[in-house]
Design goal:
2 domains, 104 residues, transmembrane helix, membrane, mainly alpha, transmembrane, rod-shaped
Length: 104
């Protein structure tokens, strides 16, 4: 006797329809997030799923630390530039006042 395999989509219970049924069972926020994934994102998630859990946690901690350090350095640079500009302005004004005192 010959076995006839159904064409995908012909039988609603075939294996090809299972992912779509499971997708509908997911939370709306998860469905929205998954529907917005690009192929590059999927490749990245597939790669991350092959790494050990501890390594992924270490990477996340490293990225979090880098973000915190970069914020600190950004504000440190802004502060140093502001101090420099403020020092130059203060020096110019002190020179002006000293010039007024010599004249008057």
């Amino acid at each position: 006797m010959l076995a006839v395999t159904p064409i995908a989509g012909e039988n609603m219970n075939d294996a090809a329809s299972q992912p779509a049924q499971r997708f509908n069972e997911l939370d709306e926020k998860v469905q929205e997030m998954l529907s917005q994934l690009k192929p590059d994102h999927v490749k990245t998630l597939e790669y991350l799923s092959t790494l050990p859990k501890e390594e992924v946690q270490g990477l996340m901690k490293m990225f979090r630390d880098i973000k915190a350090v970069s914020k600190f350095l950004r504000w440190l640079i802004v502060t140093l530039v502001a101090i420099f500009i403020g020092g130059v302005a203060l020096g110019e004004n002190i020179a002006k006042v000293a010039g007024w005192m010599k004249r008057g």
